[in-house]
Structure formats: C-alpha cells, structure tokens
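Subject: complex prediction, re-run

Hi both,

The earlier run crashed halfway through, so I resubmitted it with identical inputs.
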Amino acid sequence: MPHTFTISQLTDKLTQGELTSREATQSCLDRIAAVDGQLNAFLSHDPADALAQADAADAARAAGESKPLLGVPIAMKDVIAVNGHPLNCASKILGEFNSPYDATVTQKLRDAGAVIFGRVNMDEFAMGSSTENSAFGPSRNPWDTDCIPGGSSGGSAVAVAADECIASLGTDTGGSIRQPAALCGCVGLKPTYGRVSRYGLVAFASSLDQVGPITKDVRDAATLLGVIAGEDKRDSTNVPEPVPDYTAALTGDIKGLKIGLPKEYQVDGLDPEVKTATETAVAELEKQGAEVVEISLPHTEYAIATYYIIATAEASANLARFEGVRYGARVDGASPEAMNRATRGGGFGEEVKLRVILGTYVLSSGYYDAYYLRAQKVRTLIRQDFLNAFEKVDLIASPTTPTPAFKIGEKANDPLQMYLSDIFTISCNLAGLCGISVPCGFSKSGLPLGLQLLGKPFGEPDLLRAAHAYEQATDWHTKRPILN
Amino acid sequence: MEYEAVIGLETHVQLRTRTKMWCGCANEYGADANTNVCPVCLGLPGVLPVPNAEALRKTALTGMLLNCDVPGFSKWDRKNYFYPDNPKNYQLTQLDFPSTIEGFVEFEFGEGTERVRINRAHLEEDVGKSTHFADYSGVDFNRAGVPLLEIVTEPDLSGAEMAYEYLNALKAILEYGGVSDCDMEKGQVRCDVNISVRPIGQTELGEKIEIKNMNSFSGVRRAAAFEIERQIGVLREGGTLVQETRRWDDAIGITESMRTKEDAHDYRYFPDPDLMPHTPSEEWLAEIRGSVMELPLARKRRLMADYQLPASDAEVFVGDAALGDYFEAAAKGAKNPKAVANWVMNNLQAKLAETGGSVAEVKFEPSAIGELVGLIEGGQINSKIAQDVFVEMFESGKSPMAIVEEKGLSQVSDSSELEAFCKDAIEANPGPAEDFRNGKETALNFLKGQVMKASRGKANPQMVGGLLKKILGS
Amino acid sequence: MPTMRKDLQHAVKLARIELTPEEEARLGPQLGDILKYVDKLNELDVEGVEPTAHAVPLTNVLREDEPRESLSHEAAMRNAPKTSNGLFIVPKIVE
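This time it finished cleanly. Structure:
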C-alpha cells in the first residue's frame, strides 16, 4: 500500500527499485478515488499531470539521479501557486484562476524531484480553524467524519492522515498547520518566520504567514523543511540563514534540554483529556532526560485580541486585489466601484467579509491608534515574553489545542468562540517563533490529540530533535483512521 | 482689500532606472500594452515586492541635490484605495519615515533668487494607465510599479509665475542629476498644486484647495493663475471657500470641483509587512555624495565668475550641459574665454546643427578651440582664415596649427612683404587712392580689400590699414 | 431587522463589500462582539513600547536594477475577466 508510506519509507523503496513513483502516485490516486468522497480533502487534482511527473521522476532515477523527494507525491494547500494549475484559496472569488507562475516552495519541491499533486482544501483565504469556511464545502476529520479536521490547512492534514498523499504543505498564520495536524493525528511544523519563502503563498497576514510541512512523522517534517527552507531573493522578509541538515538533528538524545511549561496555559476550557495527555507527554520527555521548568508568559491573555487586529488589518489590504479587474469571478456593475462591490460581495464568504471589514475598521481614520497601533505594541510585549522565556529554556511545551476536534457546525455561528480555540498556537506567529505539533494520544471518543513544542527563532533543530525523541518512545503517529 | 496667494506643489517624477520598483520588468515607455508586466506588478495573488537598489540610490541623490537630509531610517507604508489602475489596490509609499526630508530649491525669479523649502522627497510606485472609450475603460499595467519620486514643497510659493519657474528649476536639477528624463510628453513629470488665498497681512492660511490634472508646466501656470483669481473673486463677493479638490480643464481653461473634504479618502496607511526598513550606511551615503554634481544655478554663477561670461552665455551652457562641459574643457587656460565661448556657441553649434551630430561626436579635442583662438589672438591668422580653419578642423579633426601650416595660411605680418602688396594695390587703383587723399576715409576699405584679396586673406588687416595710410600720406 | 453600526458601515463601504441585509444583520453583532473583546488591550499600559511591524529584524533587503523576464502578454491576460486591444477592460471610469 504505497500511499500509506512516509517519505522515508517510500524513498527507500524507490531507491531499492522495489517500487516506482508511478505506482506510488497511482496508489494515492486510487486512495483519493476511494475515500475522498467522504473527506473532501482535495479541491482538484490532475491525475494525468501527476502521473507524468511520476514518470519523469522514474526516468530520472533510472538515469542515476538522486534527489531528496524524487518521485514523492506531495499535496499542496490551495493557497500556494503552481504554474499552470488552479489557485482558488478555497474561495469563489478567484473563479477559473490559473496560476501563470510557481511559488518559490513549489519551485523548490520541483527541484527536489517531488510529484506536485493536487490542490487541498482549506478555510477560505486561510481564515478559519475548521475548514468549514471553504467555499467548496468543509473537509471532514478522517477519525470521525462528523467532526471538523481543524484549519485552516484542514485539507492538508486530512490528505496526510487518510493516506491520500505522502505528505503535504500547509500554511500557518495563527496555528493553521499545527492545529489541523493535531486534530487529525499528523505532524505539523510551522517554521520560524523568514525561514521559508512566502513568494507565491497568497497572503492572509503577511507578517505572520509561513509555509510548512504536514507529515506522517517527524523525520518527514525534517526532510520536507530541508527542501522548502532557504534564501529567496523574491521575498524581502526571507532571512538569509543557512539551512542545516534537519534530519541530522534527529539524534534521539534530549538529555539536558530545558523545556518550559507556561503557567498561563492552564486556561479555562482546557479539556481534561487534553490536559492529561499533555502532562503525560511532558513526563515522557522528562523521562528521556529533558529538564522541565515552569515559565511565565504574562501577556498570553492578550494574544488573541492582538492577533485578530493585526492579522485582519493586513488581510484587509492583502485581499483588496480581489476586485474583478485583472482576474477572478467578476460580477458586473455600472462603475468600477459597483463592480468591485458586487464582485467582493458575491465572491467572498462570510468569514472573509467579517475579517476584511474588521481589518478595514481597525485601520480607518480615528481608530488606527486605538486598535492597530496598540496591537502592534502589545505584539512587542508578547514577543518579549518569549525572548525572556527562551533565556531560561530551549523549548516550550503545551497542548496544541484546548479540545479535540469538535463537531462540524458547532461553532459556525460564533466566530469569537472559534478564535478563542487558537489560544496555544497564536503567540508563536506573533513572536516569529517555530513550532511543531506531534500526536500525543487520543480522546476517549477516539479523536487524536497533539503536543505542541515551540522553539526559538531558527531553533528548528532542537524542536525536531525533541519531537522525534518523543515520537520514538510512542506509537501514536503510527495509528491510522479506519475509513469505509 | 488686497489678497495674496499661498502655493505648495507636489511633483511626481518617474525615476530613470532599467527596471521597475519591485520587479525586474523594464521601466520603459511606449511598449505594447501589458507586455512589461509580471505577476508582481500585475498584483497577482501571492507575489511580493523587493525594492530596486538603484531607485533608492537615485532618491538619496535627489535628496542631496535638493539640499535634503537623508535620514538613517526609512520605511514603507501601504496607502489603501481602490482604483482600476492600482493593481494591489494599495500603493506602496513612504508615510512617516521618507527617504529624504527638509531641503530647498534655489532659483532665479524676477530680479533676484528665490528659495522654496522642500518638505520631503519620498519614493513610491506609479500606477497603470487608463484609456477611456465610449462605454468602458481599459487599463495597461506597463507603467504600474515604475519608481516614482514625490517631491513636496512647503507652501512657499506666492504666484503662478513663481510656481512655473520653480518647476523649471526642479526639472533642470533632476535632469542634471540623471535622476529622471523628465519627459512631460511621456508623463514622467506630473504635478498637483495646493492653493489658498488670504488677505495681505493675515498670518493664518486660507482654505487649501488642491488642483489636479495639469499635464504641462505651462498648464500649472495657467491653472494656478486662474485659481488664484477665482478664489480672490469668491472672497471679494463675500463668498466662502471650502477645502476641496478641483480639476483643471485645460481645453476650457477653468478649474471645477472634484470632491470636497467630506468625500476625502480614508487611506488607512499602515507599515508594509512585506518590505523591510532601509537604514542607509555611511559608506552608501558617501558613495552617493561622491556623485553629487554641480547644479544649474551654481554652475551659471561659476561660469560667469570664472570665465567672465555674460549671463546669457552662461545660460546657454547650463541649458545644454554637454555643450557647457565642452566649453569648459576648451576654455581651460584660455586667455580670452569669451572668445572661446563664441566659437563654441556659434561655430560649433552651427556645425552640429548642420550635421545633426552631438558634442560627443566632435572629431577634434576641445583644446583645439582654445588653440584656434590663440592663433587669432597671437596674430598668426585672421578671423576670416580662422573660419576656414574651423571648417577643416570639424571635417578632419586635425589641429588648427597643423591646418595652418599644411595650407600655408599663416598671416603675413612682415612689413616689407605687406608694403609691396599695398603699393601694388595703390598703383592698380589710382582713383580710390586719390579719393582717400581727398579725405574720403571709406576709400581705404576698398584698398584694404584689394590687399587682402591679393594676399589670399593672409595679410594682417590691422597692419595693412596702417601701411596704406602711411604710403598714401607720404 | 437590526442595522449595522454607522462606524462599521463606513468600514464596509471602504472595503467595497456588498452585503445583503441578512449578512448585515449577522455580521453587525459579530463584529460588535469582537470589537468588545479586543478592547481588552486597553487594560495594558503600552506607554513607551515600540510597535512591532515585522517578526524578524531585517533591514536593507534590496535587489539590483537588473531586468528579469516579464510574463508573455498571453499569460498576463489569460485570467482577465474582460479584455480588448491588449487592455484589461473595466466599467467606464468616471472621476
């Protein structure tokens, strides 16, 4: 069953000649045909194109080429540009948009030999925590199809958890990789801001967005990060820091690593099962020689408010380009303004409208200082909290989410409640840190739970080392949902 | 009651760079519509800007030429407004930390020199170009993302004529600096004018009215003149003025209201998260400072002082910088720089106009003109011969000395040789000789002409006159 | 039906988003709740705190003035809702 393989398992088989990329790709295509009807992870995929890439990879391998992802099918969140493919951001507003260019991460995947494979579902423009905000219907959690898979990279997590692909790319603005990875039982890594190029990632909140991997285990996350990270002259916010061999960090040795537990993360609404699972996981890390200490992040309770001001303000400008002039599903009007209004009114979903209006509001004349500028200052305080904490510890551990996956529709009419569930993931983006979620158990009802580890800027090696050491001691990541 | 006008100008200038501000598309006028475009300047989903180093360099240079400070920190902001020619529907600009601030422009106006303070010169991006048809409009994004410098004055101008002269001076500076080609026809310079009027003696400013849509400096002059008169007229008739934006209709020659303060835009400026701040280093600034060139007014003053040129000559050389450079090279060490200036302005320019060539293509070295003048001044050739020598220089590139020697054109100043010429002329023309003796001075010129003719122009004319008089008088 | 607050309506207008009356009725209170929630930030004293605009402290990220290939005209226009004579066509602009 090649579609169930990890990147490293598949690569071994391919290298040993036991399997071709065409077979692996076909296996994924078959799996999609079998299960995606109930999951709705894929918005579109082009089997002929995928198989052609697989054949090219097989030919390259036969010619003696060796690349880190040669012949490995990777699914792309529908917010990352792939030349010649649709790019919808799970929105109606882009209409029949077909990208005339590649994102830098897409180019890097191509250079590494990957089979770039399918467009996966998400909350429209990455705005949401459940993938219910997709204009093309929600994705469903493979562990319980009545439940949300998390979001916004819900399709990326579902496709990996349900073995519809080998690995995927998601994006994370306030937890959008880590949260769905946790709720679907995958590994999700949000790299440090500036680590991975954002060129070709359709911006939600430019100062917070990062592309990252969702994978079946930590090693795959390390491999995939190694491919997509690195300098890009097309992205001014990209940090020209050398890319280490992340897989070399997976030594299994975490003796002396200092892990902080923020006392402010004992929040109301933290599910007891989640709490227990996290404590058990931290105890495991301690057992392996990590030193666990309590830390304080005093401005934690202001993170969500800060985030929703900054992210929506940036989004209000980022999404202004979707107005029907140069691309997208235009709704006609008598004047450019009428056309813009009708196009945006008809093309954006309600959550996107809400956030764009909110972001416009907090920047508008008379409100800028009270909302936006204040939020930028609180962001400084939040960032400072983490920098202080990281003087004492190497990593910070917490649950990824306060609860397991909830039922589809449960929070659909209360955006604020939905926002509050981002409490553990959101500060990481505000402070520009890296973070990872690894499976750490199941709820009684059989839903996956995630352990989040946060690292210093460019501290991915430590993050991956600890996550990998934990994973080696547990078998949560090997569990797979049973689908009819 | 008498009124006075207070005027401030905002001038947008396209910078001369090879590529656009944020992407590698050509910064080029006149290409087919939507051919110099890429995902970045079309504002496609997912793209990011990366600033053009040369645009920042030219901005800093402009700042220096305008006597501005180049602060140690500048940043980028988004100015949000929807318009079909605005690809991202926000324009990247510099709100509170511009690249250059607080300078001034000096220019001659009336009898004296005026100084207009510059508030800032900040960098932003141009938008696309709209064309209007009967029932729709079309947009070409070739211009979108071209680096655009906005130069904002303090309200230091007091009239339409002064605004016009300021703009000419600014244009000359920008052209001198190689910052912009300033081609009005290509829309490389565009200008908005803020005008208010107040009773003379009143310190507070009147209601500020912005005028848009002038597409030439003379348009600015006419629009400002109209608007000042209109505003004073309104006040004289007991009316009131409100803060508003008005459009200049060049064909009719009037301004008309576009929008009032109530409909003013709410641009929702905020720092651009995609672009990092610029903190110019000392080395970077020093390198640019090293390329600061002399400005037109300073050059004019120096040409007048160093070469004793009249203002009109200096203006010719300031107006055509290449010709001015040529003159300075030619006049180096010349005893009579004015004579050199005449040769450059008259003969050289005439020849260049005739052949359609440029100063750079002239075959002989600038020093050859100094040499030619030296030959005349030293009496080796006369000015008539010099004209012929110059033509030969222009054609062959040979030095004047070489031409004179080669063709035996040296002036005859040997008095015994000249005396022979004079005696022959008197003998051959007894009538005019007699006339002169009878007091008809002009008859001497005829005889002189005969001598020159006989000597094939080589005779020293001053000496000939003296000798003729001497012979005829004895 | 409750209408949206005036200040929010202004933001809707600036954002150029047409809302149905039903959407206005739903979004109005939701926005009100969120704005009430974010007022939380007023509890903090931020006097003298520098604002953070970027998550990383980079400066002077520049590109040399070197041409790169543009898109072909066809690729540039292929997603356009309406074109004519090589231009992107929009409803008539009247200033």
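Chain B touches chain C through 51 residues (CB under 8 Å).

- K.
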